[in-house]
Amino acid sequence: MKVKCWQSLMVIMAAVLMLPTVSAAALPAKDSQGQQLPTLAPLVKTVTPAVVNISTYAKTTVQNPLLSDPFFRHFFNMPPSQPRQQRQTQSAGSGVIINAEEGTVITNYHVIKGADEVRVTLEDGRTIKAEVVGSDPDVDIAVLDINADNLKALPLADSDKLAVGDFVIAVGNPFGLGQTVTTGVVSALGRSGLGIEGYENFIQTDASINPGNSGGALVNLRGELVGVNTAILAPSGGNVGIGFAIPTNMAKASVQQILDHGEVKRGQIGVYIQDLTADLAEAFNLDEQQRGVLINDVQPDSTAEKAGLRDGDIIIAVEGKSVGNAAQLRNEIGLRRIGDEVKVTILRDKKVKDLNIKIGGEKLTGASKVHKIFEGAILQNSQSEDGVLVRDIQAGSAAAYTGLRPGDRIIAANRHSVKNLRDLQQALSKRSNKVLLRIIRGNAALFLVIQ
Question: What is the mean pLDDT of residues 190-212?
Fold first, then answer.
């Protein structure tokens, strides 16, 4: 019996060995000495010339705090003012060449933030002064331009095709040591809610990423760029096997706008959203396992309203791609170009419906359109009670000087009851320089006159 088992096992192993190999994912057959052993050396050799080290220089003003004390200056009979000393600071990071002919390099925005001068060092030792073409702080991407010959670029992979468990290689400049290669796998996909960037959809990897790796390359075994290394979770200050990279598809959307316009104009459709929890799904008579994003407010005159979206609709897909939470939907909409039209699939009264919505460019808040006094405020319909909720107020804006505070609930305007934004807009439709509001603040009600 044991002999037969071993014979069967040998037959299976022979069959596996005879299967055709997939050249794209197969490991090289020889090492650097020509031995028949698995090695990543040939792959690394093709990748590293496209990864650069970035040095940034900035001037900071330094002054002894005692010299800022007027009593100290008076006591020692020092002149009223003295020139402050300037000190040059230097920091290091990484970058990736994505276009050899044009000399286009991408890196993290935080690598070059506040820099007076940026220099790029190639693998062959050449150091070149770089020009910052533009940046997208919300995604943490910056685009540099360098003028050099014989550059090597990395091809961009479709990061949507990544799967957990795929092998990846991280290349960068950790701790300013110079080009360093580490290996690992994709640990997770679609990481968000970390509070690192404005738009988050990170690839998580256990390939070692450390300070200085920021802006470097995360590549697959085909030698294609799948992500831009950005951040780590480091309770002890060093690598613990949890690193994050911006997917190339996400970075590419920002890079193209920067190359075309020098900046990124963020798209939106004019809705307030929240995750569809199990409790909310039950309240809407849906399966508790239903995933999606609940629309809790549609702004007046927004592209969402014009397309037919309503409060209570549940968005389940964008362009056929499922969205399971608010962060995913925010990425799908916010990273598209203004003017693009997208197909949004919704659940309404348990029925699936497709709507075509145009990506808008104006930052709608439902505020300045209501009345000029609300410019700089974010207003939304109150979900639990009648009225309009003041969600936020931008510092220094017109709304900041009205006396309104975030959390206030407007229940009347010019002696007209207000149940929602449309009521507020109608009550203030006769434009005047004086507005009477009745608001709820905490447990108290009060009147507010705004001129």
Answer: 83
According to DSSP, the residues that pair with 191 across neighbouring strands are 202
**pTM value?**
0.67
Select from 259, 110, 267, 257 the least CA-distant residue to 197.
Answer: 110
Per DSSP, helices labelled H in 19-104 are 41-47, 70-75
Give alpha helix (H) positions in 135-190. Answer: none
User: Which residues are CB-neighbours of 136 under 8 A, at least 6 positions away?
Assistant: 109, 142, 254, 257, 258, 264
State yes or no: is 187 an active-site residue.
Answer: no
Residue 435, SS3 per DSSP: strand
| 135, 187, 214, 368: the active-site residue | 214
pLDDT in tens, 286-302: 887 788 888 877 877 78
Per-position b or e across 324-337, b if 16+ CB within 10 A of its CB = bbbbbbbbbbbbbb
The catalytic residue among 55, 91, 94, 140 is 140
pLDDT of res. 392: 77
Is-contact 332 318, C-beta < 8 A? yes
Residue 371 annotated as catalytic? no
Measured CA to CA in angstroms, residue 298 lies from 269, 366, 427 at distances of 9, 9, 19
The confidence score (pLDDT) of residue 300 equals: 75
Assess contact for 360 and 378: CB atoms under 8 A: no
The answer to whether residues 315 and 307 touch, using CB atoms and an 8 Å cutoff, is no
Percentage, residues of the chain above pLDDT 70: 81
At residue 278, the 3 state secondary structure works out as helix
Which two three-digit tokens encode residue 196? 């690192």
Say which of 91, 94, 110, 159 is annotated catalytic.
Answer: 110
pLDDT recorded at residue 219: 95
Q: Which of 110, 295, 325 is nearest to 201 (CA)?
A: 325
Measured between alpha carbons, how far is residue 177 from residues 93, 172, 181, 233 in Å? 10, 9, 11, 21
Question: Which two tokens mark 299?
Answer: 């702004």
CA–CA distance, 427 with 425 (Å, rounded to integer) = 6
Rounded mean pLDDT, 410-434? 83
* Rounded Cα–Cα distance for residues 96 and 252 (Å): 13
- Looking at residue 152, what DSSP letter applies? -
**Dist CA 290 CA 279 (whole Å):** 11
**pLDDT at site 19:** 44
Partners of 306 in the β-ladder: none
**Cα–Cα distances in Å, from 312 out to 292, 298, 363?**
12, 9, 22
Residue 379: what pLDDT?
80
